[in-house]
Amino acid sequence: MTRREELLVLARANPEALVDYVLALEERVRQLEATVQRLEARIQDLEGQLAKNSRNSGKPPGSDGLAKPSPQNLRPKTDRRPGGQPGHVGRTLQPVKKPDRVVTHRLERCPCGQCRGVSLRGQPVQRWERRQVFDLPPLRLEVTEHQAETKRCPVSGRLVTASFPPEVSAPVQYGPNFQTLTVYLSQQQLLPHDRLGQLCEDLFGQPLSTGTIMANNLRVAGQLAGFEGALVRRLRQAPVVHVDESGLRVEGKLHWLHVACTPGLTFYGVHAKRGTEATDAFDILPHCRGWLIHDHWSPYFTYDEALHGLCNQHLLRELKFVAEEVHETWAARLSQWLVRAYRRRQRCGEFSERQFKRALARYRAILQSGRRLHPRGQGTSADPARKIANLLDRLQDFDLCVLAFLFDPDVPFTNNQAEQDIRMIKVRQKISGGFRTLSGARAFARVRSYLSSCRKQGRNLWEAVRQAVIGQPFMPELTTAGP
């Protein structure tokens, strides 16, 4: 007997049992449909995570792996050719007027081939052809011995000794130039300690221990305490401060590297916490009354006496994901509109009040089209659509922070300044791993603050490090633009 025949027999003999059976099946179907919806949402979420990369999300470029996407620039194509543009100052090697050494190549016999090598010793020199070779002198450590005279006082009869210079404080020590070299290579060029020791042995025949390198770095960091205090004071007064943070391994544990910077100044700080406990400890953001540019991390908004501008580059990446992976047109329209508004501001300057009101109305209209697809509070936290709704919440609730670049010429379109300043610290971590001690991490952050600020203000880093080594570092000026 087939299943159909069985059900027909059951319907004739016991209709109530058939109804119960059908209702049970309906309940089972509802449960399976709910399970399918959850699994579809989970699959969509996982596919979305796989589709995210450094171009369409906040993921760093290093996470792209071997499947790194082709770089794409949001800037429009221009007719300019690659390479240096008109007016660019080249860096071709140029001869000097006064060389350190001159080697004369004398012409004894004629090489013309027609005179069979006649002697030219008695002929006067008509002119000189010059070629200059730029090279290093032989590398060696120069040892200076300081000898202090000891004499006997004719009055007291005591033996007295002349004083050594203040910088000569040990029986054997490295001088300021060599200390400058080790600090420069380890802190600016990010050379690992063991490779720096090998380099010193290969170039100078002088092996250098890790302990000596670390001691030099800590000593210079101590000399920069006054610089850091001045840096903090200058950043408090800056009209625009970029802020960001990133993870850092210290003593095998997760710590956080915080950056507060301008185009002319950089402060790095290391702390065990990521939030306001850390930013309060650095004592910069609580005193800022200008613009704070960041990526919408909520603790920054606790500083409500400052003005807040959001990084549009972060938003463009998130919109790119919604447009390309979820195929929602409002995200593509908003992304294109933001880029066009930025280009217009670059060409024409900040918007007038009337222009800004029109731009704000257009911005809100585009968001409203997205809001119709994703109502506020839609779905659960695991629902991929909820993430899009959260993005719309941010874009709507902080619209003036997003569009601040339109009405204030001091506000940049992105937070690239902070991201660029924090990038080299991440490079150091990739080269040498984490920090073994918190004191070493904080010393590195202070020295890098000094070096980055020096670079931004057009100072020669070698001279800047040497000034720090001898205890005379430069003190930063408040600048909002690079040199």
In brief:
The protein has 483 residues and is α/β, with parallel strands linked by helices. The protein has helices at residues 3-13, 15-51, 176-188, 193-204, 210-223, 225-237, 276-282, 312-325, 329-348, 353-373, 384-397, 399-402, 404-407, 416-432, 438-456, 461-469, and strands at residues 150-152, 159-161, 240-250, 253-261, 266-271, 291-294, 307-310.
Task: Tell me the total number of β-strands.
Answer: 7
CATH H-level homologous superfamily name of the domain at 235-309 and 415-453: Ribonuclease H-like superfamily/Ribonuclease H
Overall mean pLDDT stands at: 88
Uncertain stretches: none
- CATH architecture tag of the domain at 235-309 and 415-453: 2-Layer Sandwich
Q: What is the CATH class designation of the domain at 235-309 and 415-453?
A: Alpha Beta
Note the total helix count: 16
Overall structural class, as computed from helix and strand content, comes to alpha/beta
Largest sheet: 5 strands, mixed
Structure overview:
The chain is α/β, with parallel strands linked by helices and about 475 residues long. Among the domains are: about 1-30; about 235-310 and about 415-455, Ribonuclease H-like superfamily/Ribonuclease H (Nucleotidyltransferase, domain 5), CATH 3.30.420; about 310-405, no CATH class. About 45% of the residues lie in helices and about 10% in strands. It has 16 helices and 7 strands. It has helices at about 5-15, 15-50, 175-190, 195-205, 210-225, 225-235, 275-280, 310-325, 330-350, 355-375, 385-395, 400, 405, 415-430, 440-455, 460-470; strands spanning about 150, 160, 240-250, 255-260, 265-270, 290-295, 305-310. Strands 5-4-3-6-7 form a 5-stranded mixed beta sheet, with helices on both faces. Helix 3 crosses helix 16 (about 460-470). The radius of gyration is 34 Å and the shape is elongated. About 25% of the residues are buried. The mean pLDDT is about 90.
